[in-house]
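Q: I have 313 residues here and want to know how they pack in 3D. Can you give me a structure?
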Amino acid sequence: MTQAMIRSENLVKSFGEVRALEGLDLEVAPGVIYGFLGPNGAGKTTTLRVLSGLARADRGSAFIDGLPVRMHDRHQLSNIGVLPEEPAFYGWMTPIQYLRDFAAPLYSIDIEEAGSRASEILDVVGLAYAASRRIQGFSRGMRQRLGLAQALIHEPQVLLLDEPVSALDPAGRKEVLELIDGLRGRTTVLLSTHILADVERICDVVGIIDQGRMVIEDKRDRLLNRYARPLIEVEAEGDIEGWAESVRRLPIVEHVDLLPNLVRLQVSQVETAQGELLRSLAQDSVRVRRFELIRPSLEDVFLQLTQSPDSVR
């Protein structure tokens, strides 16, 4: 059996009367891109801080590559790259100076290799054009890219990324996600984010936590197949509120969301539901613009599991 690259057992962490982690168990296999999801305050950032050795758990254990995580252990930290949600830098430095003269020596990278590696990684994260500009004038998105470059400078086996693309525009987010996607199989990535579409796009495994506990952990596709409920969207001309209220009582309809001129229905028995709903629309003389079966997304699963955690127990 393959040893987990990242693992936690019964992690508990409190800040005064606030319990951030409540017995968290987590396991990430080598080379996997793991999407770490949860509502605000669920404990994602606290988990990453414990795993990176920047915080100490009150109880429980954390392991990287089979070894217990110890705070401020330089040898162990050389195996981990960390990108906090809001990375901080010396504003008077340039990116090339920061990576070559500050970040690289922390990992005992010699000066010649540090210079070439800094240039390469700035090119990879799309900052080569700004390599000689002062960091203090950087946008938040540029700082995020530089933070990712810092996390990668020593070619770590494990990357802990806290909201790595939240500050980027769509084009920048696409580029950084492609970079992370390219690390699959070479680096183990734990990616904490609230952008569910990004997780659905690149992550192999998904873990959802709520109130400091793991709600569910599974392969992305298996999670979607198991928990994603079929959805049907009906768009019509004029008011369809009356029709929506009438079909709400059908046994095959589990949930109804009503928007202006649009009804979104969560159903069971998809084929039967399609037939019944189409007949009902015809009987009510609803002028339909669109009738579409929607592939459920990870967002639908996320909302279902975090709003109704008992459904997975």
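Q: Anything worth noting?
A: Residues 124 and 179 are 8 Å apart (CA to CA). DSSP finds eleven helices and 14 strands in the chain.
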